[in-house]
Amino acid sequence: MDLKQLRALLTVSETRSVTRAAAVLHLVQPAVSRQLRLLEEEMGAPLFTRERNGMELTDAGKLLAEHARRALRELDQARGEIQSASVAVSGVVNLGLLPSTCDLIAGPIAAGVKNKYPGVKLRVITGYAGHLQQWLLAGDLDAALLYDREPTPTLAIEPLLDESLYIVGLPVSGLALRKPRRLSFLTGKPVILPSAPHGIRALVEHECAVQKVTLDVVAEADAMNLQKTFVQHGLGYTVLPGAAILDDVARGVLAAAPMNPALRRRVVSAWPAQKRITRATQCVLDEMRVAVNECVTKGRWAGANLIARR
């Protein structure tokens, strides 16, 4: 097995055609077919089937493609580090961001990386915290933003900020940013929450147990946009971080109030603890902290307090 065979496998899987893959790889079609044949002989299993829409990976092919992507990504990073050891920082960095934070910091991070480290290629992937953590541990991400995580033998973290959670409803609800409400405000009212074990759901249920509050959860939605849509359609109230609702409140689409006592969650940057962090990844992490600090200090991240760097 060699790199040419792995690149042929991935290119055929993406283009669904040996002919198109050959054009992408600047090879003749028989050469690509031969690489696939040798790979199948070595694996002892067929890697593709021919369907109406073109070449499709078999289960064995999907498994090999997953490992091939990871291997090639690691090699690309190693090449970038070796070539840049004595010159400018370069390499590929896969960064995971949470949906609620993406609009706030993705642009500033990308701009900062481009201006300061033009040799770094940044790839941004969005996902829920649980998925981002899985991708980190699987090696598919180099760094990510996560919620309420502590360091573990496999995960290194740096706390960035604490953010307040808000009760969110329609403008006619009487909720206001300067008028904190107790969690008991939601008693007897329809509530929309994420499904368990989502972080916000866990925080709210824990606080309900502490304050002896019972909620009537009429709908579940893991996506914050869906939670806001359900509220706008009059289905009930929800609980969201300030970063997700500040623009909607300013436009008069939604109303929100912080909780009293405050219900907060921690946002951290994270990376695999058992994998050496590259120079390029460290530079992206630095730019992420700069972007977060700027959002908080300029008031764009509602209800957030920065955590001093250790």
**How many structurally independent domains?**
3
DSSP summary: helix tally? 10
Rg (CA only): 24 Å
Q: What's the total number of strands?
A: 12
Question: Could you describe the largest sheet, including whether it forms a barrel?
Answer: 10 strands, mixed
> How large is the share of residues in beta strands?
15-25%
CATH topology call of the largest domain: D-Maltodextrin-Binding Protein, domain 2
Summarize the helix and strand pattern as letters. HHHEEHEHEHEEEHEHEHEEHE
The average pLDDT value, as a whole number, equals: 89
- 3D shape: elongated
Name the CATH superfamily classification of the largest domain.
Answer: Periplasmic binding protein-like II
Q: Assign the CATH architecture of the largest domain.
A: 3-Layer(aba) Sandwich
User: What is the SS-derived class?
Assistant: alpha/beta
Helix content: 40-55%
Family: Belongs to the LysR transcriptional regulatory family.
Organism: Ramlibacter albus
Protein name: LysR family transcriptional regulator
GO molecular function: DNA binding; DNA-binding transcription factor activity
Summarize the entry for a quick read.
With 310 residues, this protein is α/β, with parallel strands linked by helices. The chain has helices spanning 3-15, 18-25, 29-43, 59-83, 99-116, 129-138, 199-211, 224-232, 242-250, 279-297; strands at 48-51, 54-57, 90-97, 119-126, 143-147, 155-169, 190-193, 216-220, 237-241, 255-258, 264-272, 304-306. Helix 1 crosses helix 2 (18-25) and helix 1 (3-15) packs across helix 3 (29-43).
